[in-house]
Amino acid sequence: MSRNRRGPGIRRRLRRVLASVRAPGHDLWTRPAAAVADVRRRWVAYASAAAVATLALAIVLFGGRLTTWVRTHPYFAVAEIVVNPTVRVRPGALLQWVGLRPGVSLWSIDPEGLAAHLTTHPWILTAEVRREFPRRLVVHVTERQPVAVVLIDQLYYLDRSGTIFARLGAEDTLDLPFVTGIEAAVLAGERPYPRHAIRQALKLLDLLRLAGLPFRVSEVHIEREQGVTVFPVDPQVALSFGWGRFPAKVARLRAALVAFSGREGQIREIDLTYDAQAVIRLRGPRGRRQRARA
């Protein structure tokens, strides 16, 4: 009897619940998309918080053992090393230079330390290393650009900053200008290193190239007092620039060559160290001079 008396009450309560669910605004299947998205965001937030809490608890409970397990797990072993295209140095040689190989744990790699090690390579100017979890390493390097050659004990390349950075190999071609006059200073270990003088000479080379002059430079000679002297391949003439005001001097050189167009072989030397004029010394027993104003 008590069971029968409870039966109708239960049925009435069940009908009220179903009626409330089907009432407007309570239909679970027709909720607005924004409301569904809000519920999803809440669940994601709850799940993330739970994951963080679980990880924190695991770290507290297991400490160093968990850290060691993560760092040595094969899931984080480097499977791909990406190196940007290079001209002078093979990517494989770079990786060998720093002792990097696939299979090492990505956690054990110090990107900044590895980048610093890469820049100790003679041909590498800058380097950047980036880890991409779980198993990828990205290496980006910038190579030095040789602009001249210097002879010290052997032949070395010079870059635009005036840095002597790499020895020429047997397969390298000598198609760059020579910079001379600094050998004694370098071998003697003089301080400061004549970097500023070298930069000035390289700047002059750039100006000559941009001026479109009809010759190729063979040698750039540097002297502390006399300044910079340029020797073209052809014509075989000495171009004395001294120090400073190179753009104006290059303009005077252009005017002098125009005046001697077709007769460049007669010129022995062009002295551009004077203001507003070029002093031209001709070949011959007396070395006759002419002055050409800019």
Topology overview:
Elements: H1 2-22, H2 33-62, H3 64-72, E1 80-83, H4 91-97, H5 111-118, E2 124-132, E3 136-143, E4 146-151, E5 155-159, E6 164-167, E7 178-180, H6 183-187, H7 195-210, E8 217-223, E9 227-232, E10 238-242, H8 246-259, E11 267-271, E12 277-282, E13 289-293
Parallel strand pairs: 1-3, 4-7, 7-8, 10-11
Antiparallel strand pairs: 2-3, 4-5, 5-6, 8-9, 9-10, 11-12, 12-13
Q: Determine Rg (CA atoms, Å).
A: 38 Å
CATH C-level class of the largest domain: Alpha Beta
Average per-residue pLDDT, rounded, comes to 81
Shape, please?
elongated
Protein described:
The protein is 37% helix and 25% strand. With 294 residues, the protein is of the alpha/beta class. The protein folds into two domains: 74-143, membrane protein fhac (Ubiquitin-like (UB roll), Roll), CATH 3.10.20.310; 146-293, 3-Layer(aba) Sandwich (Rossmann fold), CATH 3.40.50. The strands form two sheets. The protein has a ten-stranded mixed sheet with strand order 6-5-4-7-8-9-10-11-12-13, with helices on one face. A hairpin with a 4-residue loop joins strand 5 (155-159) and strand 6 (164-167). The radius of gyration is 38 Å and the shape is elongated. Mean pLDDT is 81; it is low at 25-30.
